[in-house]
Amino acid sequence: MSLEFFLTSLIVVLLPGTGVIYTLAIGLGRGFRASLAAAVGCTLGIVPAALACIVGLAAVLHTSALAFQIIKYLGVLYLFYMAWGIVKDGGTMEVNAEKSNTSYQKIALTGTLINVLNPKLSLFFLAFLPQFLPANPANAGIELAKLALAFMVMTLVVFVGYGACAALARDYVIRRPSVMAWIKRCFATAFGALGVKLALSD
Question: Secretion signal: which residues (predicted)?
Answer without folding.
Answer: none
